[in-house]
Each structure stands twice: as structure tokens, then as C-alpha cells.
Amino acid sequence: MVEIRQTDRDRLEYVSAMLAELRQMAGCEECGMLSYLLEMAYIEARDVMERDGASGRGRNKRDAVA
Questions:
Q1: pTM of the model
Q2: pLDDT at 33
């Protein structure tokens, strides 16, 4: 798997936070499809960060010490 750089991780954090807010706003306006698509994008951003966390972060610390 490809490791995500910290700047990219920060961007993903920001994007996922904005997607969560937009989804909440769209939900208030009863825009079902828009809410759904925003939620799917939010979940995808979180999944990318979780995959990186499971595969890349521990490796960085170990490699830095070695």
C-alpha cells in the first residue's frame, strides 16, 4: 500500500471535516441524494486515512529508528 504524507493526511482531515459539515447542511435542506453522495465521499476519505494508519504509520517510526 502507498503511504500518505503528513501534508496529504492533513488535507484529507480537512476535506472529511468539510464533507461532514456539508452533509449536515444538505440533510437540513432535505436533499437526499446530495446528502448520500457527501456521506459516501466522507466515508471514502476516512477509509483512505484508516488504511494508511494501519499500514504506514508504525513502519515510519520503526524505519526512523533503524
A1: 0.69
A2: 92
